[in-house]
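Exercise 7. Predict the joint structure of the components listed below.
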Amino acid sequence: MENALGLMGGQATMIAITVFVMILGLGALLAAVFWPKRWRMKYRMEVIFVGLLAAMVYYADWKSTEIYTAYQKDFRAEQAVSGQVVEKDDKAFDRTLTVVSFQWGFAFLTEDNEISRNAAVVKPNEKVLFNILSNDVIHGFNIPVAGITAEIDPGEPRQVWIRAPQKPGKYLIQCVNYCGVGHAQMKAWLVVEGEVPTAKMTVGEKSNGA
Amino acid sequence: MAHELDIERMGGRPHWTPEDVIGNMSLKTLMFSNDYRHIALKGILTSLVMLALGGTFAIIFRTELALPDIQFLSARPYMSLMTLHGMFMVFGFVIPIVISICYYMMPKVLGTERLIWASGAQWSYWTLIAGAVLLIISRPDFTWTFYPPMSLRVGGGLIWMGYLAIVMVAISEFLAGAVLLKNALEAAKKGWKTMPLMGWAMAAEGVLLVGSTPMLGVVGAVMLTDWLEVTALFDPARGGSVMTFMFSFWFYGHPAVYLPLVPAIAILYTVLPWILGRPMWSYMSAVTAFILLTVLSFVVYPHHFQPAFSVSGWLQRTTQILTLLIFIPSTLHVFNWIATLWSDPIPASARRSVVFKFFISAIAFLIYGGVTAYLNAQISVDSNFIHNTYWIPAHFHAMFMGFVGQMAVAGIYYLYPYFTGRMYNQAMANTHFWLWQVGIFTKVTMMFALGYAYFPRWVVDYLDLPEWSSSQLVLTGGAYLIGLGFIVFVFNVAWSARSGQISPADPWPVEHEDAAASAVPAE
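Solution:
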């Protein structure tokens, strides 16, 4: 399934770098304390190490920006067609849902003005655009299976798009910003319709490009 | 890599003498004396009370979270406990405890012999106490970041006291910052180049406090007037904007997370050379790191609300780059510590002491929590599983509890003979050490695992998914171990003050031979 942010490649690399640096740091600390051999480091060692870190910083910024920019390009495609009469097939998104986030739940409004409380019904592998708004307090909008999070501020509607999973089923949509006592109940489901609907609920597999 | 100025830069040897400061003071001295030792002890003891309270709140809601569904705590009391836990731990424990330890160390290390403007520290203390009392009465349930407009609509009729408490915290921290800055500047008169690293750290801490807390005061005051419906700056329903709040609050909020970090680092830079009997590997690297960290801390704050709509384009990109750059000063510190440890044999006396053990594990937790922040800083990864999932508490619990909390207890164990005249019990201190290592590691690791599985923050109830419920159960176990370790610590500190071994004239002699079995601390 295609992740909304298309992260898996870049993300796995970043996690690998993190684990490597962590092992390097902890290993050096343990060696410094327990290994009998002593090492008087030259100052240039630190300069080299900082150079390495600067490269890591550069790589992270470059990769993260590349991924995020690619994600946002699709919005621009949508904006380009909005306001024009276009055939349904030409649209950048297969489905557009308006999401009202409120204390405490999500309501999904389809293009045909059908409203569903707490269930976004989509077809497998569809590219779905969510127009999200909040009229009361700050909410969060997180779909684990799609690997996307956004903060929804009152009075500032925004868009999030995802690629729906291939496998039919119920996938979690949740609020991740504290929004009042009902916050823990503020959940909804991404329902992917299919030939064999499965009732099993899931928080979703880690998104990957497979 | 020795430098001719290094001995001076170490602040010499510790020049306190073990004496029973605690036994020889009356309650009145403890409350109102302007002697730096009394002010520091008062701060340390109060912070430990705050830790006990904040910890008890955590144990209660952790027990509720051990299993899915709601067992005995409903959403509102849960959120009150959660909010008070956050506020007590941040404002009442991690920040004041390390500052208090620095109050104790500073006059001797910097050679000022007294705390300059001690009455400022006194006022800072009492303002904080007044704030804490107001906070408990008001019972806020809007998390320690109190995002409006939610925070303006919840809470009872007494919630105005909570906003007032925020203003008082700001005043208290501002005063503490002014005291630290004044002392550091006084010490610097003898020359910046020879000033011990404690002085540099206190200058940095002073700048952080004085620069950031006025904004917290303004935010608290505006929250109050917004709540009274005099103004509507933060309420979009009445023409305000939540972004005004975000940018103002986090302007304090990000430097705030370095407020406990910098003094904790200062304790390490001060005590580590003493117990190793040699100076730090590089003085200039530490100074550079302090300056860089201070500057960067004021400009990275939008990363706290990066997935908000208003943080986009150049602002988002700049924030990402600056946040990633934090890596450099933090690593300069850690590199320096490891290079110092590695350069020469570690004295047997250091290896025996629990202070050294806490130092090493604190550094390990700083690496654990710090390196993972490489992912937090990246917009693409942050917008996936990091923002407001348990990944974030995992990150700051590793830093606050794993590093700052453990540095604070290391500082207390080190200073213990100097303010009681006795040694703590070594066996109990070791028990405390291991309970905390297992507890904190379990807690932090389970939080990272939950964050990776998209577990949201601030929920009283959750779905019974295997990757969620099993981690929550283990996490609660870890919290119990930390609580148990704290009880052992408190018992040790209280019992040894009367019944511990009398401390020798130099409680911390540097000995390279293990044969010196008579040395204190002995196993």
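Discussion. Helices of chain A lie at 8-34, 43-81.
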